[in-house]
Design a protein that fits this description.
The chain has one domain: TIM Barrel, CATH 3.20.20. It has 10 helices and 8 strands. An 8-stranded parallel barrel has the order 1-2-3-4-5-6-7-8, surrounded by 5 helices. Helix 4 links the parallel strand 4 and strand 5. The structure holds 1,3-dihydroxyacetonephosphate. GO terms for molecular function: triose-phosphate isomerase activity.
Length: 215
């Protein structure tokens, strides 16, 4: 299972979380990546943890003020990028162009969707992975895998029907090892989570507890 920790714009210390994630990944053998704010990509990558951007823009080099260029995210040390997070939704054509931009920059892509229908649609664009995250469960205490297991099962089926080479992750409310186990049982090969680590008093302990069933 892949564990992707999205730090959003939470007021945590991205370097401390990154160092904790690197240590837990090394000790457990579980693949863990951190997606910090764009401004923190280089500092987070310098810790040695696998680093992802939260978003890259659909454009390439040029007159695009305020954009997050895939090439510069990669140069800062990012290895992958989220796209179309429900807190940063994109037009279909822009998702397509951002996947292309990420591919030019050698960034792995994970495109989010709110439900199985959206997952099928974005899987058709050929990303490396997709992630189903029901917005109403994001930031809550109940994991998507227990609150709405069918949405995960159906998202896995929707992606597989379009392209069985696309990995399917799930997210929202995931914070424990049991949540990770339940997600895997439903066919997900990874999880996205945020508040369970970024808002934890002890992010390292939170990550250790999360990956414990896999270690
Ligand atoms: O949006 C998410 C990850 O991208 C999930 O957030 P929570 O883990 O806080 O529910």
């Amino acid at each position: 299972m892949f564990v992707l920790v999205n730090l959003k714009a939470y007021p945590c210390d991205p370097i401390a979380v990154a160092e904790a994630a690197r240590a837990v990944a090394e000790a457990s053998g579980v693949r863990i990546a951190i997606a910090p704010q764009a401004a923190d990509l280089a500092a987070v990558a310098d810790t040695g943890v696998e680093t992802w951007a939260q978003h890259v823009s659909p454009n390439g080099y040029g007159s695009h003020t305020g954009s997050t260029l895939a090439e510069r995210a990669a140069a800062a040390g990012a290895e992958g990028t989220l796209l179309n997070h429900s807190e940063n939704r994109m037009k279909l054509a822009d998702i397509d162009a951002s996947i292309e931009a990420a591919r030019r920059a050698d960034l792995e892509t994970c495109v989010c969707g709110n439900n199985p229908a959206q997952i099928g649609a974005v899987a058709a664009l050929g990303p490396d992975s997709v992630a189903v995250e029901p917005p109403e469960l994001i930031g809550g205490d109940v994991s998507v895998a227990s609150a709405d297991p069918d949405i995960v099962r159906d998202a896995v089926a929707a992606a597989e029907a379009v392209d069985d080479g696309v990995d399917v992750y799930c997210g929202a409310g995931i914070s424990t090892g049991d949540d990770l186990d339940a997600a895997a049982d439903l066919g997900a090969s990874g999880v996205l989570l945020a508040s369970g680590v970024a808002k934890a008093d002890d992010p390292k302990a939170a990550l250790e507890a999360l990956v414990e069933p896999l270690a």
